[in-house]
């Protein structure tokens, strides 16, 4: 009978015991500090990191107080979480108690295998029930759904903690991808016509449908574009391909194409973190990204930013693979990904330049034997070449970029102007806390991971984990406090979760704690993964992951439509309802002359565009329903004899009535109609009613 070999054989265990004893008994300095033992440089690194943690704790605490005083409440708890992460590191980073590593027995591995199978069974059970509780045409998800996906995430966290062999990694990653597909794609199941971002109807009606009809991108005259995104049609072409290959409606194809891209990002973040750390940390990073609030939102509310994340991830991965030297294969592959990013989203293109520069600066700063990041430099050169050619020959944005840069210089050199607080800053602190708690947990884990990375000596790890994250955080802070155009913190935060916070959080959860001073742990390349040493730690990590996923996915940051914590606040309806589709079909049959139709502000832009198209055939026009500041219909400014397409969705969820700061996050004013509108409408002639939507005709004269 053959005996099954285990990862920890007797000889390996003996060597570890001898090495541990040697480290404990060796004197400081001299020959004893050579080899695997501690180094003075490592000890200094540990002390500097603790000092930095104290400075970060004090600064974040003081800044939190300042933000509270000046009224920036919507970001207050993210700053507090920075202090929490610093304090957590200082508490964890205590001198470790020496303990001998004992090789796991075959029984231990068998028990772990049984537990892995059990948690996998629970994972698929929770995932299956979460899909069962989704009700089609329900226009939202229940709290029970969030509880079940959080439980699924906890089971994955337990499974990651039980990994003892690299052969378990692919199956665990598959579990994470199932969870990601659930979180990213479930919105398309509960909204009958799908759901996208606020600008999705414009992208679909102005570009996707014309490309399908004509076979080419509108705006063939160079620099003569009528719609900005005619110069950035990559993701529109992807939606067209989905329509042609899958036979889907253009809108559903546009929405659906974001799902494979988001899942690809989860795989890419695993590859990135595994490359600079361990497979365990990479799995945790992928799991964290799957439940991150803004990433869930943009994965389920398709927009250009949703598609721009994919090439950004692959370009960073190529730069990482070339960290040891140039590789012609990855240089060539960076060309199509650069083209994809440049032709998808102008904002993300310039943002990616900042990320690459931050990565290069970080790599040069930390030093090491391979100080020059040739891979990142090669990627930057290729990307800048593609971007410059696009600006000169296709979009003609070179002059616009120069004007914007000059504007930034004028604003920075003149007296600084502080950006006013957002509308969300006036909400009760309890509402802000409950909706930002998931992101606060993510930031705390990110800060913990940042400090853990700083305590190590691996130059490549520091550069790739810290460079993009610190660059994006710095830009987001500038965008939050200033009035600089295009520096929108909410847009940066999506990429920050992808290439910054999720990798750092994965590193914090996946690393085994602080090694002895100088014991820099290089990226793991062996097939064996270290076993989890403490069951309590594994359970705590699983609970933290579950709580994070629940609070993130149930917050209004991940989508007002699916949030359990809206606080009964009005918000914009980004989806089409069955009753809206029925009402516009009736109106297009009913209107036979040059009528003017006033449309409720909550009606989907798709319906507005469709109604405009059919009224145009009869020289009719459409206008928004005029609403007073107190939420009543402005009858005095409604022309006699016009029609009103009234939607009861104006009462719930509401509509956006104004914008206090164009382009700035949290500057929209949201409103609901006053209940007194119903008797007011009773004075008009009702010509159509399907329940949620009604059509009225105002008197010809007053």
Number of helices in the DSSP assignment: 25
Provide the low-confidence segments as ranges: 1-38, 96-102, 513-532
Could you estimate the helical fraction of the residues in percent? 55-70%
- Look at the structure and give the mean pLDDT: 80
**Global Rg:** 28 Å
According to DSSP, the number of beta strands is 7
Structural class: mainly alpha
Q: What is the percentage of strand-forming residues? A: under 5%
Biggest sheet architecture: 5 strands, mixed
Coarse morphology: globular
Cross-sheet strand order for the largest sheet = 2-1-3-7-6
N→C terminal distance:
100 Å
Question: How would you describe this protein?
Answer:
With 702 residues, the protein is mainly α. It is 59% helix and 5% strand. It has helices spanning 10-25, 40-70, 76-92, 106-132, 143-161, 169-185, 187-190, 200-214, 234-246, 250-256, 258-276, 279-290, 293-300, 304-321, 328-342, 346-366, 374-393, 398-413, 429-454, 459-481, 489-510, 535-553, 578-590, 605-616, 677-681, and strands at residues 596-599, 621-624, 643-647, 655-659, 668-671, 685-689, 693-697. The strands form 2 sheets. Strands 2-1-3-7-6 form a 5-stranded mixed sheet, with helices on one face. A two-stranded antiparallel sheet has the order 4-5. Helix 19 (429-454) packs across helix 21. The chain is globular and about 85 Å long.
């Amino acid at each position: 009978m053959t005996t099954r070999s285990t990862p920890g054989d007797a000889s390996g265990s003996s060597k570890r015991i001898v090495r541990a004893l040697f480290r404990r008994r060796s004197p400081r300095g001299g020959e004893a500090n050579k080899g695997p033992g501690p180094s003075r440089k490592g000890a200094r690194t540990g002390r500097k990191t603790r000092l930095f943690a104290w400075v970060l704790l004090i600064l974040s605490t003081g800044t939190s107080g300042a933000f509270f005083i000046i009224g920036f409440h919507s970001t207050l708890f993210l700053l507090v979480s920075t202090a929490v992460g610093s304090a957590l590191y200082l508490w964890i980073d205590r001198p470790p108690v020496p303990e001998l590593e004992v090789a796991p027995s075959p029984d231990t591995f068998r028990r772990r295998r049984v537990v892995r199978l059990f948690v996998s069974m629970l994972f698929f059970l929770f995932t299956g029930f979460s899909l069962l509780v989704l009700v089609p045409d329900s226009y939202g998800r229940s709290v029970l759904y969030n509880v079940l996906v959080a439980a699924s995430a906890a089971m994955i966290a337990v499974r990651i903690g039980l990994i003892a062999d690299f052969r378990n990694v692919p199956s665990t990653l598959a579990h994470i991808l199932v969870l990601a597909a659930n979180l990213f794609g479930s919105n398309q199941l509960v909204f009958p016509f799908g759901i996208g971002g606020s600008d999705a109807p414009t992208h679909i009606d102005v570009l996707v449908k014309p490309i399908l009809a004509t076979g080419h991108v509108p705006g063939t005259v160079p620099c003569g574009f009528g719609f900005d995104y005619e110069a950035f049609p990559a993701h529109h072409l992807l939606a067209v391909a989905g329509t042609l290959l899958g036979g889907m409606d253009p809108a559903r194809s546009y929405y659906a194409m974001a799902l494979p891209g988001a899942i690809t990002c989860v795989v890419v973040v695993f590859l990135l973190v595994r490359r600079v750390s361990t497979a365990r940390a990479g799995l945790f990073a992928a799991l964290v990204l799957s439940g991150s609030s803004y990433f869930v939102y943009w994965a389920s509310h398709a927009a250009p930013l949703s598609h721009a994340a994919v090439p950004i991830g692959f370009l960073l991965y190529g730069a990482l693979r070339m960290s040891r030297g140039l590789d012609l294969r990855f240089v060539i592959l960076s060309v199509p990904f650069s083209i994809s990013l440049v032709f998808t989203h102008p904002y993300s293109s310039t943002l990616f330049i900042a990320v690459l520069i931050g990565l290069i600066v970080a790599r040069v700063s930390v030093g090491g034997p391979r100080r020059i990041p040739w891979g990142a430099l090669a990627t930057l050169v290729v990307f800048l070449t593609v971007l410059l050619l696009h600006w000169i020959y296709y979009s003609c944005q070179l002059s616009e970029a120069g004007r914007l840069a000059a504007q930034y210089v004028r604003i920075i050199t003149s007296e600084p102007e502080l950006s006013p607080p957002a509308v969300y800053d006036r909400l009760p602190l309890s509402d802000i806390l409950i909706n930002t708690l998931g992101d606060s947990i993510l930031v705390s884990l990110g800060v913990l991971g940042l400090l853990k990375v700083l305590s190590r000596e691996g130059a490549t790890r520091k550069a790739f984990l810290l460079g993009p994250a610190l660059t994006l955080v710095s830009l987001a802070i500038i965008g939050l406090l200033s009035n600089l155009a295009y520096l929108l913190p909410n847009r940066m935060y999506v990429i920050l979760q992808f290439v910054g916070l999720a990798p750092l959080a994965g590193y914090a959860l996946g690393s085994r704690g602080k090694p002895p001073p100088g014991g820099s742990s290089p990226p793991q390349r062996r097939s064996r993964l270290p076993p989890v040493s403490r069951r309590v730690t594994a359970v705590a990590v699983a609970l933290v992951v579950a709580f994070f996923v629940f609070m993130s996915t149930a917050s209004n940051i991940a989508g007002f439509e699916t949030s359990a914590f809206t606080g009964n606040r009005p918000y914009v309806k980004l989806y089409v309802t069955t009753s809206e589709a029925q009402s516009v079909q009736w109106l297009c049959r009913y209107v036979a002359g040059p009528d003017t139709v006033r449309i409720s502000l909550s009606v989907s832009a798709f319906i507005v565009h469709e109604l405009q198209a059919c009224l145009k055939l009869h020289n009719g026009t459409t206008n928004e329903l005029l609403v007073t500041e107190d939420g009543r219909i402005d009858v005095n400014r409604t022309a006699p004899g016009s029609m009103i397409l009234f939607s009861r969705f104006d009462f719930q969820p509401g509509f956006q009535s104004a914008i206090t700061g164009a382009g700035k996050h949290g500057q929209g004013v949201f409103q609901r109609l006053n209940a007194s509108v119903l008797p007011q409408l009773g004075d008009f002639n009702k010509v159509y009613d399907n329940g949620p939507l009604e059509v009225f005709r105002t008197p010809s004269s007053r």
